[in-house]
Amino acid sequence: MTYKSKNYLNHTYFMIMQINLKKILSSKMFNILLSALTLLICLFLWEIYLRYQYKKEHDILLSQNKNRDLCSTYASDPRLIYTYIPNKCGNNSQGYRDYEQSYEKMDGNFRIVLIGDSVANGDGVELGETFGQLLKKKLNESSDYKNIEVIVLARSGYSTSQELIILENEALKYNPDLIIWSYVLNDPAHPVFHNANGAAGQYFFKPRFHVLHFIAKRLFAKRERWIRKIKNCDKEYHKRLHCVYWDQVELNIAKIGQVSKSNNIPVLFLIHPIFEEGKDFNTYTLTALHKKLTDIASKSGLITLDLLDAFKPYNPDEVKQHSSTWYDPWHPNAKGHMIIADYVYNKTIEKRLIKKSNNALQ
């Protein structure tokens, strides 16, 4: 065979190999594209189904509380999820259940900002019966200041993660002299996945992609079960929350401390007890948790007040709200709010948190 013939055969061989390779690559590429297209179609159909389910569940939640949209709405900051509608349902122009407040502080005034959830908001009692308003009244009756303001920045169902946003973005605008942080033992709950806010989080949260939200929810639940098992967390709801999410609780309290330190504003950290069903405060089972919270708050530079001490002389039935449809372990009645206000007032005076003003009316 001549050199020319060999060269021709080699060239032909390589041509055939290239054609076969192109066919193989084309075939693989086609399969990849087909698989990708199939996956996208499945995800698209899944997204449509989940959006349908979301709409269905949303309508059910609305039927269960037809007044939900009258007083609350979607928050402009997606991290807050929902907010109160300004100037409706007893809310002021800033969207809080409080009297009208100004960012500008008058000379000679002492300003307190109260941050919290439905307990600080005073759900179930009249505005004038809330511990924030009662505290303001008591302080003004005995203070040397011209006026002591208590500005309430609380919303029902808010978790610590949402309250931190209020602290950083709103509370400081009022130039407070003291911040009172109202901590309830369900505060570590996730505002959407745990549903500790009467379904407000579920109702107002709008996933951008429902498939991703579905996956995130499943992973969240799986992770929680895993941590519960690893840490051998207690079955009681509030103990379990703090057991599973203690790292986050520590981090959030540390953030409060950082804001307090960087702005030179003292923070009074109020720990509310729950009203345990069938128990009194002498047999209270969450004392150790209160101690743990007190220690970490003190370590973060906060001034801690454990309201368990205030409630111990009372029967829980005297100071809690009662419902015919469910047992409410969190919300004090008017008497309970009065007890809180008296205790905070006495401790505020005792700890000299409100200093005399040179501009005060004597």
Distinctive features:
10% strand; 362 residues; alpha/beta; two-stranded antiparallel sheet; 2 domains; 51% helix; five-stranded parallel sheet; Rossmann fold; 13 helices
What topology emerges from the helices and strands here?
Layout: H1 3-64, H2 68-71, E1 72-74, E2 82-84, E3 109-116, H3 118-121, H4 131-142, E4 147-154, H5 160-169, E5 178-183, H6 200-204, H7 210-231, H8 237-244, H9 246-263, E6 267-271, H10 287-299, E7 303-306, H11 308-311, H12 316-319, H13 334-350
Parallel strand pairs: 3-4, 3-5, 5-6, 6-7
Antiparallel strand pairs: 1-2
Helix pairs in contact: 4-13, 5-9
Structure description:
With 362 residues, the protein is α/β, with parallel strands linked by helices. It folds into two domains: 1-64; 105-197 and 205-350, 3-Layer(aba) Sandwich (Rossmann fold). Helices cover 51% and strands 10% of the residues. The chain is built from 13 helices and seven strands. It has a five-stranded parallel beta sheet, sandwiched between helices. A two-stranded antiparallel ribbon has the order 1-2. A hairpin with a 7-residue loop joins strand 1 (72-74) and strand 2. The protein is globular, with a radius of gyration of 29 Å.
Instruction: List the strand order in the largest sheet.
Output: 4-3-5-6-7
Quick one: biggest sheet?
5 strands, parallel
In whole angstroms, the N-to-C terminal distance is 122 Å
Assign the structural class, choosing from mainly alpha, mainly beta, alpha/beta, alpha+beta, or little secondary structure: alpha/beta
Shape type: globular
Give the % helix.
40-55%
**What is the fold-level CATH name, i.e. the topology of the largest domain?**
Rossmann fold
Label the CATH architecture of the largest domain.
3-Layer(aba) Sandwich
CATH-defined superfamily of the largest domain: SGNH hydrolase
